[in-house]
Design brief:
The structure holds two protein chains of two kinds.
Chain A: H1 3-28, H2 32-58, H3 62-93, E1 101-104, H4 105-114
Helix pairs in contact in A: 1-2, 2-3
Chain B: H1 22-36, H2 41-57, H3 71-97, E1 105-111, H4 117-127, E2 133-139, E3 144-150, H5 158-177, H6 191-196
Antiparallel strand pairs in B: 1-3, 2-3
Helix pairs in contact in B: 1-2, 3-5, 4-5
The chains are: A mainly alpha, B mainly alpha.
Chain lengths: ~130, ~200
């Protein structure tokens, strides 16, 4: 195996291990928000490392390298947005249990909104039902 | 919306796009060429046509002139984000596989100093990639982020810890994308909503 192959192997294996850890986190973590932590950070970095490992093998082929760079870039840009939307939906709908949270400032804010303390804030939401 | 915001509307007249749309046009052409994997004239011309059609049909809200991003600030921000992404990935991966209970968590309110939609969006996006935080909700009028945070240190201080790290990250984002905003001590302009007045 050449040096390139070793670099690729290390990058791809470490990326795969991170993706595996993300998957284990998805299974083990107790609620939606903890799972989104697993789904955004190790998963994104794991994919970036796998892509880097592939790039090393493709390096003379500029068009393939650029295409993979775009894959990585869009993953970095879209993963936080997707996790934000899921996290927000989980809170607003009230279906995610919250007794494990040490504090919940967002619920306090919703209750204040319902009491009319923040007239300029977005006109959303009845306070979500406590679970 | 006032008529001078430069928004391109679809129309048979096919008005030329405002020059504020140029950065997004350029980016779309570059992306198009990247996807085709070629910069032959046919691909470039096709990319320009598709980009023009897209901004005509889906005009982006145009932002008022912003300060030019600082190159040093952007490089520094990028380096911080990479290091933070590495740290947070290893941290979350370790919490996932280590024996024993998973850490506790909390939802914390963290105020931002900027009232600019673009700056709030950039800060929120980056905070989702760095250790311990995940954006749950954003209240734009008060510029407050609601973050889900993993409790790794003292549970009593979780709120202050998160707010301190949000503050540092926002400073880096502003230093990179709106240099001068903090030096002036002023809040960053209320850009999008100012433009629509």
């Amino acid at each position: 195996m050449s040096v390139d192959d070793w670099v690729s192997a290390v990058l791809m294996l470490s990326g795969s291990l991170l993706a595996l850890a993300a998957g284990i986190g998805m299974l083990r973590f107790p609620d939606l928000w903890m799972r989104m932590h697993a789904g955004t950070k190790p998963q994104v970095l794991g994919l970036l490392l796998v892509l880097a490992g592939v790039e090393v093998q493709l390096v003379p082929d500029a068009s393939a390298v650029v295409a993979l760079l775009f894959v990585g870039l869009f993953q970095l840009v879209t993963a936080p947005v997707a996790s934000h939307l899921l996290a927000r939906a989980g809170h607003r709908s009230g279906v995610v249990p919250r007794e494990q949270l040490l504090q919940d400032d967002l619920r306090v804010f919703e209750l204040e909104c319902a009491a009319g303390d923040h007239p300029e804030s977005s006109p959303h939401k009845e306070p979500t039902p406590p679970t | 919306m006032s008529p001078d915001t430069g928004t391109t509307r679809p129309g048979l007249r096919g008005r030329l796009p405002h020059r504020r749309q140029l950065p997004i046009l350029t980016w779309m052409v570059v992306f198009w060429c990247g996807l085709w994997g070629s910069v032959s004239p046919v691909v470039v011309v096709g990319g320009v046509l598709v980009a023009l059609a897209l901004v005509a049909v889906f005009p982006m809200p145009t932002l008022p002139p912003a300060p030019l991003p600082s190159v040093v600030g952007v490089v520094r921000l990028g380096a911080h984000v990479l290091v933070d992404l590495l740290r947070s990935s290893l941290q979350v991966a370790w919490f996932a596989v280590r024996p024993g209970p998973v850490p506790a968590s909390a939802i914390v309110a963290a105020p931002l100093r900027s009232r600019s939609d673009a700056m709030i969006a950039a800060t929120a996006e980056i905070l989702s990639l760095v250790p311990g935080t995940l954006v749950v909700d954003i209240d734009v009028p008060s510029g407050t982020l609601y973050l889900h945070a993993l409790v790794t240190g003292d549970p009593e201080r979780i709120g202050d810890d998160v707010r301190a790290s949000v503050r540092r990250m926002e400073e880096r984002v502003l230093a990179a994308l709106a240099p001068g905003a903090l030096v002036d001590g002023a809040e960053v302009a209320d850009d999008v909503r100012e433009a629509r007045r």
